[in-house]
Amino acid sequence: MRILVVEDDAEIGAAIRSRLTRLGHAVDLEADGASANALLAIERFDLVVLDVMLPSMDGFAILRRVRAAGGATPVLLLTARSTIDDRVSGLGLGADDYLVKPFDYRELEARVQALLRRGSGHANDVLTVGSLVVDRSSRLAELEGKPLSLSRQEFALLEILASRPQRIFPKEELLSQLFSFGNEPSTNAVEQYVTRLRKKLLGSAVEIRTVRGMGYQIASA
């Protein structure tokens, strides 16, 4: 999934990006509020991890503008402010969750996964498509009861497709969710990962279909 982290503390920002990248997400990192606000106006994200105290524009102002523009992207606020009034203000502006610094990175990961799960309409971290089971918590996948050996990007692509079976995902959307800003390869990269996944699904009733002119979808016969 594509995540924007907005954090002006370089150490904390790098740590968050590193941990979320290891979970298989494409992570963009911004340290300036105004820059993050501009990026949100042109790029689509599945989640925003947003610090409140930022240079140029604070997190509350960014959140207010996102929601005023009709943006429904889940937002996890990070702040050193721990008073009830601050938490109520953030939630009232449209934040989906709130984490007070200092925090345990394991809790951050759990909250990120919960928001992404909620955003995709699932009650838990296990996705099932026919005989394919994708566990987003353990980052493991099984086909017909046998483990699938997948690279980080292969798992990420399988997770995206399996999160909404039968939905057709355009190549450009998959590209955006798999790679962070400035690191996007050509759409041929998506085709290559699809080809690899198809080989690993070969012989089962689960397949990744190409819908000409539209994109890809996963389905079970």
Describe the structure.
- There is one protein chain.
- The chain is an alpha/beta fold and 221 residues long.
- It folds into two domains: 2-119, 3-Layer(aba) Sandwich (Rossmann fold); 126-220, Arc Repressor Mutant, subunit A (Orthogonal Bundle), CATH 1.10.10.
- The protein contains eight helices and eleven strands.
- The strands form three sheets. It has a five-stranded parallel β-sheet with strand order 2-1-3-4-5, sandwiched between helices. Strands 6-7-8-9 form a four-stranded antiparallel β-sheet, covered by helices on one side. A two-stranded antiparallel ribbon has the order 10-11.
- A hairpin with a 2-residue loop joins strand 6 and strand 7.
- It is elongated.
- The mean pLDDT is 90.
Could you give the order of strands across the largest sheet?
Answer: 2-1-3-4-5
- Whole-number mean pLDDT: 90
- Show unreliable segments: none
> Which CATH C-level class of the largest domain is it?
Alpha Beta
* Number of distinct helices: 8
Using the coordinates shown, work out and report the CATH topology of the largest domain: Rossmann fold
Shape estimate: elongated
The helix-strand sequence is EHEHEHEHEHEEEEHHHEE
Query: What is the CATH superfamily of the largest domain?
Result: Response regulator
State the total count of DSSP E strands.
11
Overall structural class, as computed from helix and strand content, comes to: alpha/beta
User: Architecture of the largest domain, CATH level 2?
Assistant: 3-Layer(aba) Sandwich
Kindly state the percentage of residues in helix: 40-55%
Give me the Rg, rounded.
18 Å
Q: Report the β-strand fraction as a percent range.
A: 15-25%
Largest sheet features = 5 strands, parallel
Count of discrete domains: 2
Distance between the termini: 26 Å
